[in-house]
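From the thread on structure requests for the teaching lab: each student submitted one protein with a one-line request. Submission from student K.M.:

"Model Phage tail tube protein from Paracoccus pantotrophus, tokens only."
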Amino acid sequence: MAKPTTYVGSTVAIFLESATVPGTYLRPCGLTNHTVSFTKNTTEVNVPDCDDPELPSWIERGVESLDFSGNGSGILAAEAVDEWWTAFNTAESVNARIYIGKPDDATNGRYWQGKVHVTGFEVTGERGNKAQTTVSVVSDGELTFHEAGAS
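Reply posted by the TA:
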């Protein structure tokens, strides 16, 4: 049995396009946990048996739409506050990349690229602890799949 190639958890990450250098994607500092979710929305119809319509029918499904959502949480880094706030505080979607694997690893790295809305930017503070943040993003249209290391 061959051992699988695995990903380090910290290589799952949300990158935002730089506001000052278009085409450059940066990972806002501080997030230590990321979750990404791709969903397929379907429609369904019961299809009866032509020879015996009294038999239980099978449900067939058609794909109606695809969706992406993601979130991240971790330490609130002062260096990232402006990036997250700017991305949240706009009615326009922003360009983003969602990575699994290192951005420069053309062998194992992958990413999805497209527009997202930052729908949540939460900051929590507790006496005696570092401030924490949680961000949420959703896709705004199609995300395209790429190998890392390729433009």
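TA comment: The chain is about 5% helix and 50% strand. Helices lie at 78-88.
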